[in-house]
Design a protein that fits this description.
Strand content: 15-25%
Number of strands: 12
Largest sheet: 8 strands, mixed
CATH class: Alpha Beta
């Protein structure tokens, strides 16, 4: 890895890697067994057991589906929140309960209906399942390029321990070390069908 990659170099490298990982993920025919296994691993973890407020997401395009884990969380009486896109820069987390209808946003992503009384600030969540395209052994994450999660959890860069950001992915999505920008927010852990991995605090940020 270059010690001081330019912004254009970093974006070109990320674009190529995103395209490769998307192609592989979209080619998957069935991830039900992997989703169930990842849910079992995360549900058995202290992070999940102690979490009262959990944020999930709706799986799209071959993403590892957190629905089995969300079902476990609801059955355990945990409060479940899903992201809602507000504009090109921001999203919020809105409470969702089993049976409540989801509505497609401008990007075709299902999300809860707007209800300011059901919105929770990101720093009040206990555990957040973070969708991704790739991750590395230091907890660096390759997202989809829009930056919503990095902006929502930017306060984590000040060493905030709450919430725990847990990537949710297939094991094959682990990549060699990723080049990062100073606005990237690292994962605290990742759950895959093979188990849980917790990352050491602190990482090398390239700027």
């Amino acid at each position: 890895m270059s010690s001081n990659p330019s912004s254009s170099h970093l974006e070109r490298a990320r674009h190529v890697l995103r395209r490769e990982l998307l192609a592989r993920r979209n080619a998957m025919s069935d991830g039900e067994a992997q989703a169930a296994a990842a849910a079992r691993h995360l549900a058995a973890s202290p992070a999940f057991r102690s979490a009262a407020r959990l944020a999930g997401y709706v799986a799209l395009g071959g993403e590892l589906d957190p629905a089995p884990l969300i079902e476990i969380a609801c059955a355990a009486g945990k409060a479940v929140y899903l992201p809602r896109v507000l504009d090109a820069q921001h999203m919020e987390f809105t409470r969702w309960r089993p049976g409540e209808r989801l509505h497609e946003n401008r990007f075709g992503i299902p999300e809860p209906a707007s209800d300011p009384t059901q919105v929770l600030a990101p720093e009040m969540l206990d555990l957040v399942l973070v969708p991704l395209l790739g991750f590395d052994s230091r907890g660096n994450r390759l997202g989809f390029g829009a930056g919503y999660y990095d902006r929502a959890f930017a306060f984590k860069q000040a060493k905030s321990t709450r919430p725990l950001l847990c990537g949710y992915a297939y094991a094959w999505q682990e990549t060699p070390l990723l080049e990062t920008a100073d606005w990237d927010v690292a994962l605290d852990a990742v759950a895959t069908e093979q188990g849980m991995t917790h990352f050491a605090q602190g990482r090398h940020i390239l700027s």
